[in-house]
Amino acid sequence: MYKAKAYSAATPTSPLALDTIERREPTEGDVQLEILFCGICHSDLHQVRNEWSGMMPTVYPCVPGHEIVGRVTKVGSAVTKFKPGDIGAVGCMVGSDGTCPSCRDGYEQFCPNGIFTYNSADRHTGKVTYGGYSDSIVADEHFVMRVPGNLDLAGAAPLLCAGITTYSPLRHWGAGKGKKVGIVGLGGLGHVAVKLSHAMGAHTVVFTTSPSKKEDALRLGADEVVISTDANDMAKHATSFDLILDAVSAQHDINAYIQMLKRDGNITMVGLPGQPLPVAAFGLIYNRRSLSGSMIGGMRETQEMMDFCGQHNITADVEVIPIQKVNEAYERMLKSDVKYRFSIDMASLKAE
Ligand code: NAP
Ligand code: ZN
After folding, report:
1. Measured from the CB, is residue 249 less than 6 Å from ligand 1?
2. Could you give the percent of the chain with pLDDT greater than 70?
3. pLDDT tens digit string along 114-125?
4. Which of 336, 340, 343 has most ligand 1 atoms within 8 Å of its beta carbon, as the pocket-test mutant?
5. Predicted local distance difference test score (pLDDT) of residue 62
6. 134 and 349 in contact (C-beta within 8 Å)?
7. Which of the residues 11, 39, 184, 277 could staple to 158 if both were Cys, CB 3.0 to 4.6 A apart?
8. Burial call 133-150: b when 16+ CB within 10 Å, e when fewer
């Protein structure tokens, strides 16, 4: 074991503050990273504040962060993909059993014994896993991704969650040329989804509650932007979408979006509001529409997404902040005041 610096929350209502945590020394299959950048996902906030207490209660102290890019500092003797000095990246998962049907099919995210990067039982330390708001992390190399060399590292970090969470359902539901795709909520996930959907060739429409984001949405690659509070604007798109990705973090009316799907159209929830959303069955039965969900992605698909982003030069639009501003960043994220992802420059933690 060795000691690492981190920012943790001690209770659901306490601010994140400097802490010292224990990490394992790399075992033979492990990679140790010095963390350079870590994105701030809305899931970090949900988890820190125990907003998912029903499904995933938070264990304190909680060190969030699952959009991690770093420099390899040590590798175990069996590691083949990385050597010290390389750049590696860790997303939402650091382990799975490797033997269940989901793991065998490349869907580690659905493994019943999956280990999330934070807030999962840590069999090495006997405590809980700690995420990327830290100066280092150790993970099995299977869960460490390669980062294409042309990508800016601060902007690449958010791909590890915002990127794969939107890439996976866009691919699964066939986003591409000739398809009309809606993206609801222009936040961290939403803005990466717009870039990906555009790069896949789909006609991409953004739904936002923030009129001030209209120009940005077009710049990011949207073909059209709808202000979702404007009923006339919404009515223009009735029964016209093949696919809608809902990336909203709070309570909202999804029935309005279900109505916009054409025959056999699908709406996929990636946003995770703490409370259930009411669904009108009438909206679904007409036109045989479907409502589904999607959770991050497997390791093979995460690497595929990173490589796709390398080919299309896609990174998140980031506001780089020092870790000392993390609590302020959470408040701004709650007000949808972020363009469009905070990325923590972890060099700032060294100074503490
Ligand atoms: P975010 O950056 O805060 O973006 C959320 C966006 O939702 C906001 O920018 C805003 O967009 C919209 N919004 C917020 N409050 C709203 C309200 N009351 N009504 C309507 N729209 C509202 O969050 P994020 O990091 O992208 O995460 C989004 C959600 O996805 C979170 O719940 C997160 O936990 C979840 N998530 C899920 C997975 C998964 O595997 N499924 C992975 C990562 C994250 P506009 O200003 O454009 O309206
Ligand atoms: Zn996330």
Report:
1. yes
2. 100
3. 999 999 999 999
4. 336
5. 98
6. yes
7. 39
8. bbbbbbbbbbbbbebbee
Distance CA 306, CA 132 (A): 19
145 and 177 fall within a common domain: no
Taking residues 21-43, what's their average pLDDT?
Answer: 98
Is the pLDDT confidence value at 351 over 90?
no
Number of domains in the chain: 2
Q: What is the pLDDT of residue 186?
A: 97
Q: Compute the mean pLDDT over every residue in the chain, rounded to the nearest whole number.
A: 97
First to last CA, the chain: 21
Q: How far is the CA of 218 from the centre of ligand 2 (A)?
A: 24
* Predicted local confidence at residue 178, as pLDDT: 98
Query: Looking at ligand 1, which residue's alpha carbon is closest to its atom 10?
Result: 185
- Region 311-328 average pLDDT: 98
Q: For residue 216, tell me if it sits in a domain.
A: yes
- Averaged pLDDT, 222-242: 96
Residues 151 and 254 in one domain: no
Measured from the CB, is residue 277 less than 6 Å from ligand 1? no
Is any atom of ligand 1 closer than 6 Å to the C-beta of 188? yes
In a domain, 304, yes or no: no
Residue 140: what are its φ and ψ, rounded to 5°? -60, 135
Ligand 1 site-directed mutation target among 117, 249, 253, 341, most atoms within 8 Å of CB? 249
- Distance (angstroms) between ligand 2 centre and the Cα of 158 equals 8
d(CA 4, CA 222): 42
151 and 202 within one domain: no
